[in-house]
Design brief:
Layout (H helix, E strand, L loop, with lengths): L2 H9 L13 E14 L6 E11 L2 E13 L11 E6 L5 E6 L4 H12 L7 E5 L11 E3 L6 E6 L3 E6 L8 H8 L9 E7 L8 E8 L5 E2 H13 L11 H21 L2 E4 L1 H21 L1 H4 L2 H12 L5 E4 L10 E3 L5 E3 L10 H4 L6 H19 L6 H24 L9 H22 L5 H8 L9
Antiparallel strand pairs: 1-2, 2-3, 3-5, 4-5, 6-10, 7-8, 8-9, 9-11, 10-11, 12-15, 13-14, 15-16
Helix pairs in contact: 4-10, 4-11, 5-11, 6-8, 6-12, 8-12, 10-11, 10-12, 10-13, 12-13
Length: about 450
């Protein structure tokens, strides 16, 4: 390994967006390096790196925006972003760092969109007629895990996709398909690159309008649930159920817009049975890794068996793919906007671009309401009163969301309980694996949801 690769091998596993945490890096290689900004011997350089990290049984590519300065010109505020000291060609000693934290370089990055290019290995593209307002620098948006987003004033947000996959990213693809919709942040441009070994251009980043003053759906929901469970005066609080119903309607309208713009199909009865078999396989794998799940497996298997017997074709289309309360924001006008159409970031882009039942998104949001309730219970095991209040809150909001989804023109969840229940269990099994591997103290949240799911998921 080169000196730079050795530095990256130490730095990358400590980053939130690195997907292979806990697994030793066996080899690391900078596969491509593209200079975006070069400001002379003392000024900062900005290089876009594609780095391949080889770990046990897996190999992943990541995007690194690498800043470089001489040690004497490194501002004090960038010391925490330093990766290490690197010997540049010519014997010059340079400090390399995460350029996402450099106001000067991020401002230059935005300027590249003002003069988009259709040539070269790395291209800055904008939608026709789009004029980019420059003059602001980016600040890193906290809270993201698999990607890094930079907010430029109150104008734009640039989402950089840290893990690199071949082809167009679904987030860009679906946002472009929904262009003009009031339910998404307007896409403005993107960065794409021709990378070694990939047959088609790869999306590296997406520029969208920033929506100032918006509130995170998860924060709103958990705050409301906590207020209820703590006995807040009902007259003094605004119930979230109205928001949940509006979110359901918004979700249905987004699904309908995607179905109008992008391909649709139906799964045959045979294909539905094969989908049920895949769910059974995932359950078996998860049960082998998490023994606590095995005792609930018979209940889940019953739901999958019912799903396998569905005797009518299942409509499929492009969907969000990783839908939960953390993927929606409520604007100042009270409407909902959907974010992050990237899909599940741990699977390949090819898999994420496949058509699926929109009821998968419905199931994901219903699981999220359960999670908002379970979030309050994690540190209070055995508190029956708190549990009753939290579960009641979840049921009310699940019902409101489903009612809104049907009112918005989506498939009525009440009429597709067998399908919805199977998708919910499949999502819960995924959650069990995730929590066991990443947050063991949260494992009870999906396990208790599975245990309590003997009743239909949308009780009346």
């Amino acid at each position: 390994m080169s000196q730079l690769e050795e530095l990256l091998a130490v730095w990358m596993p400590r980053q939130r967006w690195f997907s292979g945490k806990g697994i030793p890096i066996r080899n690391i290689r900078v596969e491509s390096r593209h200079t975006l900004v070069s400001a002379g011997p003392e000024g900062p350089d900005l290089n876009l790196l594609v780095v391949r990290a080889g770990q046990r049984g897996r190999s992943s590519r990541y995007q690194v925006l690498l800043g470089s300065r001489s040690s004497r010109s490194l501002p004090a505020e960038l010391a925490g972003a330093a990766i290490g000291v690197h010997q540049a060609p010519g014997g010059r000693s340079r400090v390399v760092y995460d350029a996402a934290n450099d106001a000067q370089l991020t401002a230059m990055l935005l300027e590249r969109f003002a003069a988009p290019s259709a040539a070269g290995h790395v291209r800055f593209r904008t939608l026709p007629g789009e004029r980019i307002r420059t003059g602001s620098s980016g600040r890193v948006l906290t809270g993201e895990q698999s990607n890094t987003s930079l907010v430029f004033g109150e104008d734009y947000v640039l989402k950089t996709f840290r893990r690199v996959w071949p082809g167009p990213n679904p987030d860009l693809e679906l946002n472009r398909a929904l262009y003009g919709s009031p339910y998404v942040a307007r896409p403005c441009g993107w960065i794409e690159a021709d990378l070694p070994g990939y047959a088609e251009p790869t999306t590296l980043a997406m520029l969208q309008d920033y929506i100032p003053g918006a509130s995170d759906g998860w924060v709103l929901a958990t705050a409301d649930a906590e207020a209820l469970t703590r006995g807040a005066d009902r007259a003094a609080r605004t119930s979230f159920t109205g928001d949940a119903a509006l979110l359901g309607r918004t979700t249905a309208e987004v699904h309908r817009a995607l179905a109008r713009t992008l391909p649709t199909d139906v799964l045959s009865v045979t294909a539905v049975a094969e989908l049920a078999d895949a769910m059974v396989e995932r359950l078996a794998m998860a049960s082998a890794e998490v023994p606590e799940l095995a005792e609930h497996a018979p209940l889940v298997m019953e739901a999958y068996a019912e799903f396998a017997q569905v005797d009518e074709p299942l409509p499929i289309q492009r969907i969000h793919g990783d839908y939960h309360l953390g993927q929606v924001i409520r604007t100042g006008s009270g409407g909902w906007v959907l974010l992050d159409f990237e899909g599940e970031p741990t699977v390949s882009v090819a898999e994420r671009r496949q058509l699926a039942s929109p009821l998968r998104d419905v199931a994901g949001m219903l699981r999220s309401f359960d999670y908002a309730a379970g979030y309050l219970l994690v540190d209070h095991p055995g508190d029956e009163g708190l549990e009753w209040s939290a579960r009641s809150w979840a049921r009310a909001n699940r019902e409101a969301f489903c009612r809104g989804y049907a009112d918005g023109g989506g498939a009525d969840p009440e009429k597709h309980l067998v399908v919805l229940r199977a998708f919910e269990f499949d999502k819960a099994v995924y959650e069990v694996l995730y929590e066991a591997r990443n947050r063991p103290h949260w494992l009870r949240v999906p396990l208790e949801s599975i245990a309590a799911a003997a009743a239909p998921p949308v009780p009346r």
